[in-house]
User: Fold this.
Amino acid sequence: MREPENIIVVKDLVKKFGDFVANDHLTFEVRKGEIFGFLGANGAGKTTAIKILCGLWYPTSGKMSVAGYDIYTQREKVKRNIGYMSQKFSLYDDLTVFENIRFYGGIYGLKKKAINERAWSLMKRLDLEDARDKLIRDIPLGWKQKLAFSVALLHNPKVVFLDEPTGGVDPITRRQFWNMIYESARSGITVFVTTHYMDEAEYCDRVSIMVDGRIAALDTPENLKQQFHSATMNDVFIQLVRSK
Amino acid sequence: MRTILYIIQKEFLQVFRNRAMLPIIFILPIVQLIILVNAATFEMKHIRLSVVDLDLSSTSRGLISKFEGSPFYQIKQFSFSYHEAENQMQHGKVDMILNIPRGFEKKLLIENCVKVQFIVNAINGASAGLCNAYATMILMDYNRQIIAENKTISAMVLPQNILTDYSYWYNPKLNYKTYMVPGILVLLVTIIGLLLSGMNIVREKEIGTIEQINVTPINKIQFIAGKLTPFWIIAIFELAFGLSLGKLIFNIPMEGNLWLIFISAAVYLFVILSFGLLISTVTNTQQQAMLVSFFFMVVFILMSGLFTSIESMPQWAQTLDKLNPLMYFIRIMRMVLLKGSGFNDISRHFWALVIYAAGILTLAVWRYRKVA
Assistant:
C-alpha cells in the first residue's frame, strides 16, 4: 500500500513576537483526508500556527507547504486550495444568508450559475432554505457557525482550517458540527481543526498537543491514551501540561 | 474584474442597508447647505451698539438716527454714563460703544471739527475691523449731510469731491452665499468620502471579516478597487445633488463648464478616498480611524481658504497648504462656478490633484497588507 500523501508539511516553524516565541520549531505532517486536531491551552500558539499556514501571517523561519504549494513562493495557489473559518465570526452580519454565499463564491471566482447551484444545495443541506433572505444577525449562533463552515468549503478546497469552530455553542450543535466535519473528511477534504475541548479531540484521526509553543505529543487519540495510561484525552492533556 | 463587481455589489448592499446611511446621504447636504451657508457669513448684521450721548443736541441725535437707520446696527442701550456702557461691554451685552462728548454740536459749529469716540470689542479682530469700517462709512455719510445742510460750513470746507466707485467682479452683488456654496459642497463630499472610506476597512478589521477576505486569492488591487468604487460613486452623486440644491435654493451661478467640475471632483475624490483608506490601514478600530480623520479634516478645512483667505496666511502656512487637497478643489470649484474659468486657468490646481491622487493611492495600496 502506498503511504498516504502529506497535504501539509511543516518543518521547523518558528514564529516570534519580539522576545516571545509563539511557535517553537514545530515539525509535523498532515495526511490527505484526515481530521487533524491541533490541541492546546489558550495562548499555546495554536492560532498563530493556523494563521501562518493560511498565509495571514509571516513565519519567522521554517519550511512549510500546504496542498503541495510552498507557503512563501506560491501563496496565491495555497489560498485557492484552502478554506478557513476563524474563531471570530466571519460572515457579514448585515448581509443575508444568500448574499454572504454569493459574495464569497464571487470572490473565489465561481461562475454565477455555480454560485446559485451551490448556494441552493448548501441551504438545503443546512435546512436554511426558508432563511435565504434573513440577515445573518437574525439567525442563531449555531446556524451561523454551520453556515460559516459551509461557506469556507464553497470553493471545494483541499484543506480546511477551522480555528476553534465550536466556541460558545451548545453540545447538540457541536455534535452536528462534528458530523459535518466527518462528512467533508469522507469526501476527501483534509480538516485541520484547533480546539480546547478535549472531548472533541477523541473525534480526530490524529491530534497534536501544544504546550507553550511546542508540540508535546502527536499521535492518534488511542495511542496517546495508552501511552499516558489515561482513560480520556482530558487526562492526557492534564498530564502533559503538568509534566513540563 | 468579476471579483471587483462582487465586492462593489456587497459594499452597496451594506451601505444602503445601514439605516443611518440614507439620511446622511440625502439630509446632511441639505442641512449643511442651508445652515452653514446662511450661518457662516462674513457680513455683520445687528452689531449691538451702546450709545453714550452727553450732548443731547440735534446734531448728536442726527448721528444716532443714522446708526438706527443702518441695517448693521442695533441700538441696545442709551446711557449717560460711559462706565455703564463699558460695563455692558464687559458683560458681552454690546459689541460697540458710541461716545458723543458734551459740547459736540457747539464745537462743530465753532471749530468745524469735532471728535466722537468708537470703542469696539476686538476679541475677533476681523469683525472689529468690519464694525469700524461700517461706522466710518456712516460717519462720512453724516459728514456730507451736515456740510450740505449747513451752508456756513460748506463755504469754508469743501465737500469731498473724490468719490471712489467700486465695481465688484465675479460676484457683482457681493453675495456672500454665492461664494460659500461651492466651498461648502467641497466640505460635504470630503466628509462623506473620508468617513465612508476611512471607517470601512477598519470596520472589517474589527468584526474580523478582513481575515476571511485575506485568506482568499483576491489580490489587493482588486480589493481596494472594489472597496473604493462604491464610495466614489456615492460622493460624485452627492456633489451633483449638492450642486442642484445650491442652484435651487441659492441660485448660485454656474459660469463654467460643469464637466470640468466633475472631472476635477473625480480626481479629488481619489485623493480623499485613498486618504481614508490609508487611515484605515494604520488604525485598528473605528474610533481611532474617526479621531485621525477628524484631526486631518479640521486642519484641512481651516486651512482650505473656505472661511479665511489663504493669501493672508503667513508664508510658511501657505507653503504647508500645498499639501492640502481641499485648497485645490475649493479653488477649482470657485474659479469654474463663479468666474467661468476654463481648463487652462485651473490646470495648475488640477495637475496638483492628479499628482496627489497618484501618490497617496500608491501609498495606501502599499500600506495595505494581506499578510501581517
In short: Chain B is about 70% helix and 5% strand. The two ends of chain B are 26 Å apart (CA to CA). The mean pLDDT of chain B is 85. The beta strands of chain B are 47-53, 73-79, 96-100, 117-120.
